[in-house]
Structures are given as structure tokens and as C-alpha cells.
């Protein structure tokens, strides 16, 4: 991968050079959901690839979580996004059972906005 890194370094600042893992995925852009694909460089909120973003959105609709996902409702405003109410289903992904520093849950609207942003950017 050194040839690719050298090419990216030479074309900086037009192209940002990133360290690539052995599988070719840029380390900084590795999806935190599946760990096998890259997320868009502009996604700093969810840090998910397109496949995982779609998976999360489908889970919100079906109310059936996939492994590593927390689906919930909360009466605590600080634990949910600004679009959500007491009855809104929220998601945290990825999530572990021993995760005591869980971020606020995001609703379907949040994921729809991110998907729309990605479509507009692509």
C-alpha cells in the first residue's frame, strides 16, 4: 500500500493521504459498525458505511435490532436527538452491553437526513 500512500502524499492537498490497512481500507474511515468497509469522509456523526447506515434504518422500521445495536425509547431528553419525543424509537449503533458511555440515541429522521446528504454529495 506504500505506492498508493506515496501517490496520495504527492497529490496533497488535492487528496488527503490516509494510512491503509492490509485489506485496503483507510484506517481513519473504517466503518465502526462492520469494520470491513469505508464510511464517507464527510460522515463524522455516525461513522458508518452505506450498508450499515441502511441496516440501521431498516432496524428502526422493523423494530428488530441486529447484533451490537440498541433500540430504545426514553423519557430523558438528553438521551435522544432533537427530533425525538417520548415515543420515538431510537438507536445506538454500535453498542455493547458493557458500554456505560453510550451516546444519545438517533431517530429515523437523523438517518434519513444522513442518507439524503450522502445522495446529494454523490
Report on the architecture of this protein.
It is a single chain. With 122 residues, the protein is mainly α. The chain has a domain at 48-121. Helix content is 30%, strand content 5%. It contains three helices and two strands, in the order H-H-E-E-H. The protein has a two-stranded antiparallel sheet. It starts with a helix and ends with a helix.
In short:
This protein has 122 residues and is mainly alpha-helical.
Low-confidence stretches: none
What is the percentage of strand-forming residues?
A: under 5%
Q: What structural class do you assign from the helix and strand content? A: mainly alpha
- Largest sheet, spatial ordering of strands: 1-2
In total, the number of strands is 2
The SSE string, one letter per element, is HHEEH
- The helix content is 25-40%
Cα separation of the termini? 26 Å
Could you describe the largest sheet, including whether it forms a barrel?
Answer: 2 strands, antiparallel
As a whole number of angstroms, the C-alpha radius of gyration is 17 Å
Q: Calculate the mean pLDDT score and round it.
A: 92
Number of helices: 3
Gross geometry: elongated
